[in-house]
Amino acid sequence: MKKIVKNSVLLFVALCSLASAPLFAQSSDIPRTPDGKPDFNGIWQTLGTAHWDLQTHASRPGPVVEMGALAAIPGGMGVVQGGNIPYKPEALQKKLENQANWLQLDPIVKCYLPGVPRATYLPYPFQIFQAPDTTLITYEFAGADRMVYMDQPDFASQVDSWMGHNIGHWEGDTLVITVTGQMPDSWFDSAGNWHSYQLVVEERYTLMGANHIQYEATITDPEVFTEPWTISMPLYRRLDPGMQLIEFKCVEYVEELLYGQFRKPVIE
Amino acid sequence: MLSRLVSFVVAIGLAAPLSAMAQTADSPYIAPRNEWGQPDLRGVWNFSSNTPLERPAQYADQEFLSDDDVARIRAEALEDIARSDGNSSQGGVGGYNQFWVEGLPLEDNRRSSLIIDPPNGRMPARVAGAPVAFGGLGPDIQGERPVRFAVGGIGKDGPEDRGLSERCLLGFNSVPPFMPSMYNNNVQLFQNGDHFVIFNEMIHEARIVPIDGRPHLPESVEQWTGDSRGYWDGDTLVVETRNFTDKTQSFRGTGISKNMQLTERFTRVADDEVHYVFTVNDPQAFVAPVTVLVPMHKTEDELYEYACHEGNYGMVNILRGARVEEGTWVDSSGN
């Protein structure tokens, strides 16, 4: 019976959206799924330099001499609302140490799963497969994935994981995902911004038209920050004809970095 | 998902219905439809099995098991579990005990083999000269790089001497096609109208399958898990995959996947069962294609993240252990 009522509501919503009724506060010209929700299906990517540094930053030289200008790090306007990341004093020290030893410490140099929100703004595309109960977001970098369980607010994280425990719900036309249970080992960017196991990320995805999403992530971690802080940026649909994610199993590309020192010595 | 095995054993211990649960091809079952009107294949499916890949000689032409056969096989399996519980399967450090092992299906498979073609339920003959290499949990085997099998290795000179699952590149049960093996026999299927995703728990492998009629990638783009395209054949979703690399095998320890065309068919035959039927066609490895049917059963459990590479201290220890053993290891303190 409950199901019949739910289906009737869905049908009503679907009919309303077909009739372009102003049922939703936001624009009615966004794509919608058959059940009337904003349709996030597709391949998306950010533009910008948030993966290098979430905050406003000048350009700086890159770490690989041979790559010259190609590996130099471009400046950027930053994506932190208000500009400041509210570190506790000792936590800021750790950030600065991370930054000073970036290549040795940055987990994604080792092809580790990037965590959330970093996966979103790495310079690689990701694809959303939306469903009423479980939505999959799969990222080209390291083949990282998240299953987003919809409308199960009481489903708690069972065990910590690199891509977190993802619980979704709708607030009007905004998809809200609360991410808990992330491993403390991931970072936010290549500037050493970090978190503890207490991290909670609340992501908000809002379609602003057919081809872009306004993305927001609010970061709460009382062990590291004095208060929550928020990043925001647009996500753009990849419109390239025939666009698909290409396999990027970077594990193979870091074996020398991680295991080279353990190779059998070559006797000349 | 591990608790599932335990609860299964308990369940069949308490009440073991012998009724046939296998669906037949002429079943009147109609799959529920998703929002796009397609048969709904979504959900988490478990493909554990104790059915042998090849039909044991004792069954000769017998394609399906009798009730007596099923009861006897189940009793033997439970006896075996009881006998080995608490002990590692290989003995000593590094072995898996029964806690890890998913050796039984959620529901009985009435077939005498997973292979349904050739009709005798046996592997077709190998082509003479086709590369053959089987890994395993025992000692390293003689061989050359690239190591195309998943488990074990050919040596310990460097990471390339180890199998693909030890390198966390591919799962030992999820190199396309996926096959029942020791554990993590779980796949979650996603659909969004114009795409289908085959998500294997092992190595968190999401194989994305466009079903919008687009052409394959150019042959020059080779991928570990190939390039997949799908289409509907009635209520069956058919997935064609090619563009594999020369770094994996075609099937059953044989061949090079670059020469393989893989066809997979997903059919929901009951609310709680999907038939996964795949055909491996590599004329340079086998004299005929081979087709395998793996029944998959619905589970309400969620997948865990299988973050293999992030915790692969095993690789460090295997290689460093070999350096210590051969006396070439010098650590940072000069020892």
Written overview of the protein:
Chain A has 268 residues and is an alpha+beta fold. Chain A has one domain (30-262). Chain A contains six helices and nine strands; from the N terminus they run H-E-H-H-H-H-E-E-E-E-E-E-E-E-H. Chain A starts with a helix and ends in a 9-residue tail after the last helix. In chain A, 34% of the residues are buried. Chain B has a domain at 31-51 and 115-311. Chain B is built from three helices and ten strands, in the order H-E-H-E-E-E-E-E-E-E-E-E-H. In chain B, a hairpin with a 2-residue loop joins strand 8 (261-270) and strand 9 (273-281). The chains are: A alpha+beta (268), B alpha+beta (335). At the A-B interface, strand 3, strand 4 and helix 6 of A face strand 3, strand 4, strand 5 and helix 3 of B.
| Percentage of residues in helical conformation of chain B | 10-25%
Low-confidence residue ranges of chain A: 1-25
What structural class is derived from the secondary structure elements of chain A?
alpha+beta
Tell me the helix content of chain A.
10-25%
The N- and C-terminal alpha carbons of chain A lie at a distance of: 79 Å
Percent of residues in β-strands of chain A? 15-25%
Q: In total, how many domains does the architecture of chain A comprise?
A: 1
**Alpha-carbon Rg of chain B, integer:** 21 Å
The helix-strand sequence of chain B is: HEHEEEEEEEEEH
Compute the number of strand runs of chain B.
10
Structural shape of chain A:
globular
Taken as a percent bin, the fraction of beta residues of chain B is 15-25%
Tally of strands of chain A = 9
How would you sum up this structure in a few lines?
The complex is a heterodimer of chains A (268) and B (335). Helices cover 17% and strands 22% of the residues of chain A.
Topology of this protein?
The complex is a heterodimer of chains A (268) and B (335).
Chain A: H1 2-18, E1 42-45, H2 68-71, H3 89-100, H4 102-105, H5 118-121, E2 126-129, E3 134-139, E4 145-150, E5 165-171, E6 174-180, E7 200-207, E8 212-220, E9 229-237, H6 255-259
Parallel strand pairs in A: 4-5
Antiparallel strand pairs in A: 1-2, 1-9, 2-3, 3-4, 5-6, 6-7, 7-8, 8-9
Chain B: H1 2-14, E1 43-46, H2 67-84, E2 115-117, E3 186-191, E4 195-200, E5 205-210, E6 227-233, E7 236-242, E8 261-270, E9 273-281, E10 290-299, H3 313-326
Antiparallel strand pairs in B: 1-3, 1-10, 2-10, 3-4, 4-5, 6-7, 7-8, 8-9, 9-10
